[in-house]
Write a structure and sequence with these properties.
This protein is mostly helical. The protein is built from 10 helices and no strands. It starts with a helix and ends in a 6-residue tail after the last helix.
């Protein structure tokens, strides 16, 4: 290995060590906080909502929570519902969308930083899927968002595979919108997360279901089009 190659390798491992250390410290702090308060995930989110509700700094606090959320694997759905509870159906959608896209880039960049400069190798079907994801990033990510695949898993996976950032975040913004609107509407009609969704009114619930179903229908159409283009009958 040449001197520049050794230096690059050392720098890469140093970067990985820094990211992993910071990540581990944040997760440990989160676990210690939950142990100290004795609160579960939902109760913790409700406490944050109660503290922020009606305050001028609520938007800033929400965006900060959104940025930190993927690092401790806090459920994205709860944060989106919280936006509806805090800001209502209109402002809530805008704030939740901004937070979701910001959190997507955080986990994407973490995954990106944890991999080598070379694109990771894989085998068989995984390799084909990874190649398709890199070559058709926008459509692939849009499909995964509309299918409501685990949000953070998609973000970290795309970062590890080092897909292009612009089509990734563009597809995320568009594909996440139906789910964001649906959960914000649900959140706007309840007062307390710990009481569940029993207080959601019928119109809000219907609108949320229609948005989710619409996203799934669009995802199905995209899958068929991709299958026809690739000539792979297995995914039709």
């Amino acid at each position: 290995m040449t001197v520049p190659a050794r230096a690059a390798s050392k720098g890469r491992w140093l970067r990985i060590a820094i990211v992993v250390t910071a990540w581990a410290a944040l997760v440990a702090a989160w676990l210690l906080y939950q142990r100290h308060t004795g609160l579960g995930t939902t109760a913790t989110m409700q406490r944050l909502i109660d503290a922020a509700r009606g305050n001028w700094w609520a938007v800033v606090a929400f965006l900060l929570v959104s940025l930190l959320r993927p690092l401790v694997l806090f459920p994205a759905t709860l944060v989106t519902v919280a936006a509806g509870m805090l800001f209502g159906p209109i402002v809530g959608v805008a704030v939740a969308a901004a937070g979701a896209n910001a959190s997507a880039m955080v986990s994407f960049r973490v995954g990106y930083a944890l991999t080598a400069a070379e694109r990771p190798d894989a085998v068989s079907a995984v390799a084909r899927w990874a190649t398709r994801l890199r070559e058709n990033t926008f459509e692939a990510v849009l499909l995964m968002r509309l299918l409501f695949l685990p949000y953070d898993l998609v973000n970290y996976g795309c970062g590890v595979l080092r897909v292009r950032a612009v089509p990734f975040i563009t597809a995320t913004a568009l594909g996440s919108l139906p789910g964001t609107v649906a959960f914000v509407l649900a959140g706007a009609s309840i007062d307390d997360l710990t009481e569940g969704f029993g207080g959601v009114d019928g119109a809000t619930l219907a609108a949320s279901v229609l948005l989710v179903v619409g996203g799934l229908v669009v995802s199905r159409l995209l899958r068929r089009r991709n299958a026809q283009r690739s000539g792979d009958p297995a995914v039709q």
